[in-house]
Amino acid sequence: MNNQNVETYHGIPLNVNSEYANQISELVEFYQKQMETHPLQNVFKSQRVPLKLLKEYASLQYIDSTLWVPMLAIMKDRVSAPRISKALKDNIMCEAGVCGTSHITLCMNFIKSLGVDPFFGSTEYYSPLAIHPTEMMNAVSGMSEGQIVGWTLVAEAIVPFLFQMTLAAYKKNPKTNVLYLEEHISVDSDEHAQWMFEGAIEVATSAQAFHAILEGIHLGGRTALSVPDALYAKFLRGAYDE
Fold it and tell me: Which of 6, 111, 133, 231 sits CB 3.0–4.6 Å from 116 for a disulfide?
């Protein structure tokens, strides 16, 4: 078969309107920039980051890590497109540690090194700020395939920026186990986001599917940003003063 005339985007063969691919990529980059320039980063770059803030941020990541695998499982059961189905299955295996240490264990080690007790109970045990993102995560059970693709794409694409924002602050304490942060900075940006982008290209075969993907990106992007938004708001009102 002659593929010389097949149009590509970022090296990926396209069978969809290239304008869809451009807009999907641009919207993801918008949310990446929002995370990269979030004012919370200035707090984490300061000489002395409040320990209460470090613990609450880490606790919120632990909640996310324990919910992410079952969320991916629900998403996997709601999609049919081959590339996104494979991407979700591969992501589940990576997160669950099928061929290595699970990301849940890495996150557990992360919070334990900060003196936070791992507990699989109420999310409010760790932080009342977990209510909103948890409720949004529960919404995946009713999302369409396009919305799921958009959600997972932006989630994987902006997590490295979220964790890069905080890594240096945690590394100041040599007792803090930061492997969880480092793993997501490298793997999500280099691998998982690419899988999801390929899935988005596969699914975007109509205007309806394309707009569903954009809806999912908006939902996932705003949910991810809601965590640093809330933490920064608490910082401004002095909730972390020691």
Answer: 111
